[in-house]
User: What shape does this take?
Amino acid sequence: MTKTEQPTGPKNTTDDAELAEFGYKPELKRTLGNFHTFAAGISYISILTGTFQLFYFGYGSGGPAYWWSWPMVFVGQFMVALCFAELAARYPVAGSVYNWSKKIGNPHLGWLAGWMMLIASIVSIAAVALAYQLTLPQISDVFQLVGDGTGTYDVATNAVILAAVLILFTTLVNAFGVKLMATINTAGVFIELVATVVLIVLFAVHITRGPQVVLETNGTGAGQPFGYLGAFLVASLASAYVMYGFDTAASLGEESLDPSRNAPRAIIRAIVASFILGGLILLLALMSVSSLKGEQLSTDGLQYIVLDVLGPTAGKAMLWCVLIAVTVCALAVHTAAIRLAFAMARDNNLPASSLLAKVSPRFQTPVLPAVVIGVLALAILVVNIRQPQIFTVVTSIGIIMIYLAYLGVTVPMLIARLRGKWQPAKDGKFSLGRWGLLVNIGAVVWGGAMTLNLIWPRASVYNATAPFHWYLRWGAVLFVAIIAGGGFAYYWFVQRHKTGVLAEHRLATTDADAAPPVPPAPPVASSAAD
Assistant: This one.
């Protein structure tokens, strides 16, 4: 009879039980509590970062009525979040999407989901960091380091410099361990939540029109092949680009206390809080801005509304809070990407896996992935200097791959349900119960529909201004195919033959009886490889 060795220490036996199912030994330091995991999820979504970064696009594409895309996206993503919460209760492990897809699907699908999520996360770090440019120069001209902002490449080049500073910061913080990251992230999220509530109140006391404003389209449907529906589908991307990343709470499961209970709650609370607070900001901003005709609404977005409604002093104070939100958002995205890289490397599923999966004995966190991911994000930024349109395409590709990675979890989960093979967590932990099948179907349908909307090769999304090139318009289709197809080809012909939990990360077993030795079970990551 063979039994698994359990690590000693308070709460570790319970918290690490799920790791044994994957064949992993516990290595990361458990220090995160309830609010830490909630903060990780909500800072990734980041109400102030997303709404302030993308309002101009949504408003310019669909007018005030684009607001309806916010509840639409919430309903769809909430179904995905509920599926993830059920998975987090059962499998609260690092690299959540990768390990979930591998466990309920197969190692091949898990690798593809992890690969797309990893590339998308690196792109997202660069995209979030560029939000500094939308805010800092609005606070002071001092932050426009390149030219005066009127030159052809002034804004794009300056954005890269500011973003590089932020990425260097997130790299250093993550390299020094999860405790420092969690402290900064939690403080930043607290400030962001307080600032969000204050902003909602300030907008509310400056209302100049009623909520019927969200029925106005500003004529944006003119010239669209499907009328306003076509315009709305474009505008909805402004919301779709924001409401994701809630799975981060589960990805920190190996560093959290009682993760199978805390992670599901954190996922649901993060997306619900983001929906309520973000929706109120967007609605009250439309109700309080002095005029809906200003061209700056479609160029400067919410930053313009804040200064218009609150005035320069209070407005700039609020923009500093937005800056904090952008900072912790980039930090959370970087953190999630590190855990994903660590999880894949631990299964020997990345080049130089033994180095990428090495945990620092001092900081008890994987340091090399923090540095490598930071360097790659900086490299992606360079594209924005002379070709900001290409960077827009790259950013969109990142979002598409995240939605595809999510489908890599919800689809096999649905198949498992239909086959009667899905077993949710017991002991009163989060479960969808009899609603599971309906919610899971909704999550798959939603994910597929929004992925098609995201990848649709429209000039208004991928090539809105000159120079016009076919490869920009079709950039999302081409690059997703290259990244997914090329990456999977590398896995199939090279990495697949090496996959399996690395010896230094494998959970040890001992023979409790004097019986002949029993061959160890095959590693989880390669159990279905053949």
Remarks:
- DSSP finds 23 helices and two strands in the chain.
